[in-house]
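[job 4417] fold queue: 2 targets
>>> target A
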Amino acid sequence: TTEAGVWGKRAAWVRLAGSSEGKPIEIMIMNHPSSVNFPTYWHARGYGLFAANPLGQSVFEAGRGMENPKPFNFVIKTGEPALFKFRLIIHEGGLNADQIEAAFNEYSN
C-alpha cells in the first residue's frame, strides 16, 4: 500500500484500487515467471504512475537504501529473444488477495 510501499519493491503482481463513477475498480498487473528478471521491480507514484520495470534494478535498490546495489546488465544478443510477459486485469468491484493469487497461479501455469 502507498507509493512508498510499492516503489522499487519486487513482486509477482501489484494491484491499484480506487473508484470510477462511484464504483470500486482495481487494476492488477501480473509478471509472468518466465519473464526477464522475475519478479519485476514496481514503480509507483502518487500522481498515477503505476508500472513494471524489470531493468531498473540498481536504481531501485539504491533508492531503497540497499548497500551495494547490483546493476542488471541485460543484453539482447542479435537473433536471440527476450521475454517481457505481463497480464493486465481491470476489474470492477473488489478481489481479495486469495482471488488475486489464484488468478496469478492460473496465469503463471
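>>> target B
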Amino acid sequence: ILASAAPPGATKLTHPAVRAAFKTAVLGLQYGCGAEALGARLGNEALGRKLVGDHRRVFSEYWRWSEDQVDRVLLGGELCTPFGWCIRCGNSKEGLNARSAANWPIQSAGADILRIACTALVEHGIEVAAPIHDAVLIVARADEVDGVAETAERLMREASEVVIGVPCNVDRSPIPPGSRYRDERGESFYRKVLTILATL
C-alpha cells in the first residue's frame, strides 16, 4: 500500500499475488538483499531500486536498529535473545558476514517464539505433529478442532509477546480429515521425494 502497488484497505485475501511479491521483497530487504537482487526477484529492476529507497525512508528506525546490531557483532560484541541464545563473530570457522548478522536477530527471535509456543502447546495437551519454520502443525479430533485451534492461536500470540513485547498475528490453515499438509512452495521438492521413493 505504501508503495502504491495495492489500494488502501488491501489484504492478503484481496490481493494475494501483490502481497506474496512484497512479502518476498520485505524479507529480502531485511536479510540484506540489494536493489539489483530484489529487482530480479520482482522482475523489475527499477521497482527494486524504488522499493529499497522507499523502505529505508519509511522504516528508517528499523534500518538504524539493524545496522547497529550488525556493527555491534562485527566489531567483536555479541547479540543475544532475551532467553540467552547468543552469537559472536568468532562462533564459526567461517566467521560472520554482515548479511548473516542482519538476519540473526529476526531468525533467533522467531526461534525463541516457536520454542516457547511448542512448549506451551504440549503443556496444554495439544498434540504437536511438527514445527514448520514459523508455524506448528497440530492434531485434533474433528469435533474438537476449532477449540483446540483457538487455544493454539492464543498460546502462539502469548509466546510472541513474551519474546518481543507485542503479540504477533496468527493465521489458521485447517487441513480436512483424510488430507495432508501442503505448501505450494514445496510441491516440486515433494514430488521429487516421491519419485525417489518409488525407485527405491
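[job 4417] complete. Note on B: The chain has a mean pLDDT of 86.
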